[in-house]
Design goal:
Blueprint: H1 10-18, H2 27-44, H3 57-70, H4 81-85, H5 103-115, H6 120-146, H7 149-161, H8 163-169, H9 175-211, H10 217-222, H11 230-245, H12 249-271, H13 276-302, H14 305-310, H15 318-321, H16 327-331, H17 334-352, E1 373-381, E2 391-398, H18 402-422, H19 425-437, H20 458-474, H21 481-507, E3 510-512, H22 513-519
Antiparallel strand pairs: 1-2, 2-3
């Protein structure tokens, strides 16, 4: 017969807090690495095509070049794209006003430093690496969340062939870096969640052993302090880096900060702590705020190092003509006051951005992929550039794999029932990330927005879909597992086939015009 003391052994606490141990073995690395190799091949092959700046590469790639040269973004002459691609960049000697933080452009600059600034490989390589590593992280995170090498491999494979992620990984824009840092931060918080629960189990079990039974009542009131949480600090650095790419990372920082505290509260409740809500705030929440927000803010500030140390960036000398007006402004160094005013201007710009664009889209349309973004399009007549028929098209369209994207949207709806009905914390986590990446944009209904913003949460859409596929495999019990697994594999096969079908319009291949139209299923995709 078990006794109350049996509930506070280290083994019992770990079972309640962490579940049964999962041992993926060698396959736990072989499968993720295999899908990562596939992702790398798809993202790196012909990365220099087309040999021209496409869509917003005209901003970020040229900004990256001047960061390498001057440490800050500089202005460029009008219509300079062809000259830049020809290997003869001639930036002006005046600072440029830019609205996005510099980290993403520094990362683009790393690829240019290695492969040169006169070819597409140079200005797209870092994006391709970030996209490829995202596939590896997704496979490992899914494997850990679902305790299945098989499901981890499916999640990695679906992201590896997903067209939206593929296009963004092959283009020198900022958003793939935001997506990577958000995903990596989530992975760090998963490791922190497990580490914190192990610490809680160890300390309660040690206290129980000293008492010869259950822990003392005083300890069960609020529970022990868990001390050093290195993975939470790593998450803070990664979230600060996400904000250093785009300030929309702030939404993920807020959601993740709240999420990790809720995880700690639940751990204390499961462990038998009486005042688990209050303890989650006093023993975990305050430190989580410092780790996530404080460390994140320090990391974000560090991404502005080039602007701070060079002295010639836009608005860098603002403080010299605007003396402090209040006592607290006297305590802030002049360069930081200039940076604060820079952010004030940036916030006003983002809030008031409402210029028209042919490929702008409303967030209401994103779940249905109503208006994907065309990054590149060239039409060719008979014989031109090797066109074998009357008319050919070469296009790069930020179009998601319809099978994966629409199934993922349905999966998000299913998560609501999994979270409310089964209290599945994984479903709650994915919904939180989805809210940070999707719902937050409804706060600015008049702002000009694009479908490619959704890349920030695309890996989590894949994880949500994989969670539902795992539930399908288990549906009906063990007797139906083989049949259900076949259904899951059939879905994956259809998704991969759809990627093969749409691949030409993701990579800019020349195809007959009729073949291009065959892939434009909606008039709004053109």
């Amino acid at each position: 017969m078990s006794t109350p003391a049996d509930a506070y052994t280290d083994a019992a606490l770990r079972l309640r807090l962490l579940g049964e141990r999962f041992h993926p073995g060698h396959w736990g690395w072989i499968v993720p690495l295999a899908v990562t190799v596939l992702a790398g091949v798809l993202r790196l092959i012909r990365l220099d095509h087309p040999h021209q700046l496409i869509f917003d590469e005209t901003y970020y790639v040229k900004d990256a070049f001047t960061l390498l040269q001057s440490g800050v973004e500089m202005n460029w002459p009008e219509d300079h794209n062809e000259q830049f691609a020809a290997g003869n960049p001639q930036p002006e000697n005046t600072p440029e006003y830019v609205v996005h933080p510099p980290l993403g452009k520094w990362l683009i600059a790393l690829g240019m430093a290695v492969f040169g600034a006169d070819n597409g490989t140079g200005w797209r390589f870092s994006a391709a690496v970030a996209g490829t590593l995202s596939v590896l992280l997704t496979a490992l995170i899914a494997q850990r969340l679902f305790r299945s090498v098989f499901l981890g491999g499916i999640a990695g494979l679906l992201l590896a062939v997903e067209g939206h992620h593929l296009v963004m990984s092959r283009t020198g824009l900022l958003d793939i870096f935001l997506s990577f840092f958000v995903l990596a931060a989530f992975g760090a918080l998963l490791l922190d969640r497990a580490d914190g629960r192990r610490r809680l189990a160890e300390r309660l079990a040690a206290a129980a052993a000293r008492q010869g039974g259950a822990p003392p009542s005083s300890l069960l009131k609020y529970g022990p302090w868990l001390g050093w949480r290195p993975w939470r600090l790593v998450a803070g650095v990664l979230l600060g880096a996400a904000c250093g790419v785009k300030l929309s990372g702030l939404a993920f920082m807020a959601v993740f900060g709240l999420m990790t505290v809720l995880w700690d509260m639940n751990a204390r409740r499961v462990a038998g702590i009486r005042h688990w809500v209050r303890a989650g705030v006093t023993h975990d929440g305050l430190y989580a705020f410092v780790a996530v927000v404080g460390v994140g803010a320090a990391t974000y500030l560090a991404t502005w190092t080039g602007w701070l140390v060079t002295g010639n960036g836009y608005n860098r000398q603002w403080h010299t003509t605007h003396p402090p007006q209040s006592w607290w402004e006297h305590l802030v160094p002049g360069p930081l006051r200039s940076l604060g005013d820079y952010h004030r201007q940036s916030t006003q710009f983002h809030g008031g951005l409402s210029s028209g664009h042919d490929y702008a889209s409303n967030p209401w349309t994103w779940p249905f992929m109503g208006r994907p973004t065309s990054f590149y399009y060239e039409g060719y007549d008979d014989g031109a550039n090797g066109c074998p028929v009357d008319t050919c098209s070469a296009a790069i369209t930020d179009l998601a794999n319809p099978v994966i994207w629409w199934a993922g949207t349905l999966a998000v709806l299913a998560l609501v029932f999994l979270w409310l009905g089964r209290r599945d914390w994984r479903a709650g986590a994915f919904l939180g990330v989805y809210a940070a990446g999707q719902l937050v944009w409804f706060l600015w209904p008049e702002r000009t927005m694009f479908f490619f913003y959704t890349i920030a949460y695309t890996p989590f859409l894949i994880l949500a879909l994989t969670l539902c596929l795992g539930a399908l495999m288990r549906f009906g019990g063990h007797a139906n597992r083989r049949r259900n697994t076949v259904l899951v594999l059939a879905f994956v096969a259809v998704a991969v086939a759809a990627s093969a079908f749409f691949m030409p319009v993701w990579t800019g291949e020349m195809i007959p015009y009729e073949q291009w139209r065959l892939r434009m299923w909606m008039s709004s995709w053109i």
